[in-house]
Amino acid sequence: MRESSHPLAGLRQRIARIAASGVESHRAEGWLASGHARFDDALQGGLAIGHIHEFFAADALDATSAAAFAALVALRTPGKAPLIWLRTTDANKRSGRIYAPGIAELGGDPDRLLLVETADPKMLLACANDAIRCAGSAAVIVESWGKFPLLDLTAGRRLALGARDAGTTLLMLRLNAVPTPSVAETRWSVAAAASYALEANAPGAPAFDLELLRWRGGPAGTCWRLDWNHDEHAFGEAPLSGALLPLPARRAMASHGAAAA
Predict the structure, then answer these.
(1) Dihedral of CA 7/1/209/94: which sign?
(2) Which of 97, 151, 164, 190 could form a disulfide with 66 if both were Cys (CB 3.0 to 4.6 A apart)?
């Protein structure tokens, strides 16, 4: 895990080194699968590579779960290509620092993570436009907190074209925000779910309640409960719930209510 004190210049230098090294610099295509067969089949293979996917915390208390889910999805990419995580300093203050040992505990490789913190949303967007054009990266996570007015449809189309041309998967992590019109391929609401206790009452695997809010390739509205399998480095079906869940009452009563936080 590395950080840059001069985000845009440092990111460009790092991207140039990745491109020059030739490490896994081929254009990725296809789908980023979760490892859960029924979930991936429902999306015709998983999350489409070379597209934008949005993740919203179901409410303010689910920000950590949304970030964890996005990170685990990105770390599902094969090989050693780096994962670029862009976030504002404000997001760092509100959400906390990325904890490398925690990523390792979940089965991920923290050395794959290139973390860049920016001073403001304008710099965040500039870094995102550079990062998605790096075909040697596994994926790019862009973490923002609250409203992001600079991310309008024009800016979104620019990001979408860059992701498509480079074959880079762009995961937009929107915390304390409500959905607005976008060009994203999929949009998700993520909430923490109760984990299944292991033997000797040991803490269970991380579990997530997911709602597909929007999908350009098909119908939305499906809800899933997935847990993370450390040994298989993949998502699986939560043992007690089954994959398909009814919409929880609190989701029906509130409009993905981080806005009030």
Answers:
(1) negative
(2) 190
